[in-house]
Amino acid sequence: MSSHTDHSEARSDAPDEHLPEGRGSGAVSAADDPFADPGLPPHEHRRQDIDERAAKRSERTVALLFTLSMLATVGFIVSYVAIPIDEIVYIWPFGHVSGLNFALGLTLGAALFCIGAGVIHWARTLMSDVEVAEERHGVEAKPEVKAFVLEEFAKGAEESQLGRRKLIRGTLFGALALVPLSGVVLLRDLGPLPGNKLRVSAWEEGSLIINESTMQPLRPEDITVGSLTQAMPEGLDPHSPDFNTEIAKAAVMLVRLEPEDIKDERSADWGHEGILCFSKICTHIGCPATLYEQQTHHALCPCHQSTFDLSDGARVLFGPAGHPLPQLRITVNDEGFLQALGDFEEPPGPSFWERG
Length: 356
What we know:
Blueprint: H1 2-12, H2 47-50, H3 52-82, E1 88-91, E2 95-98, H4 99-125, H5 143-159, H6 166-186, E3 209-211, E4 228-233, H7 243-250, E5 252-256, H8 265-269, E6 275-279, E7 291-293, E8 298-300, E9 307-309, E10 315-318, E11 327-328, E12 330-332, E13 338-340
Antiparallel strand pairs: 1-2, 3-4, 4-5, 5-6, 6-11, 7-8, 8-9, 9-10, 12-13
Helix pairs in contact: 3-4, 3-6, 4-6
Transmembrane segments: 62-83, 103-123, 167-187
Region (Disordered): 1-46
Pfam family, one: Rieske
């Protein structure tokens, strides 16, 4: 205990010359006290500060970097439009990569890098690099502080030479204006414009109705009362790369009811001798609504239990589906085969925001 007290007293009795500046009565040098403020080193002028030709070279370098950024942004947009999304190229040392992804990453990276490099070179060679020490002040902003800040801001703007270096100013604004276009162009990947692809299917006037199981055209006698037959239009090749896209809109089911059981007059007119043809794509999220109950003439979607009354224009009886299954107008051709009289009157499948 006495040892601790002795040390405390020794520290309290230490002469002022061993204390940092401001703590004692005398000032000392940094050599005598390692905690003393060494101050700022003498300012050394850069070559650009004393040689206007060197300053001009730096200005042209910065402008070149900003110009390269603009060209890279234009390259990004051109690559996005011109390079196919499925194109694979060999690039050493990366190997086989997506040409589009590589071009987009390279050009966007170059655009951002050139802006950053240009700003750094500008700051290091042309902007003022004089170090200024400032005492800490209170958090509150007094009127004189605000005036000081505005004055310093104006001074900094003047020292940046942004107003004087018109070449830098113009190319910087150009680069900053073009870089955001990269993000705007990427918005196109929210999805290609569908056009009318969601409104039309492979059905057209005269299309034969083909049994999905046998791939043979159907006759009226092939459809018996109480049965459900799944079908599609002729001309669709199951081995075609776009088959799934087309069948998702064109798949249909045929049922045969007794004429007196059909409640909807228009639905009966669009059929043939009690044979009705409806899209089998549920209008909720697109599952096949092909669970058929022959006594009630109801078609059930197994995904979320949407139920449609095929005897009453396929109207929705239950579930989250928003509208009836579209019906296809059918007839019989001269050879006795069932055929379509045109496409669906309404788009098949789930609702979409463009649907009128």
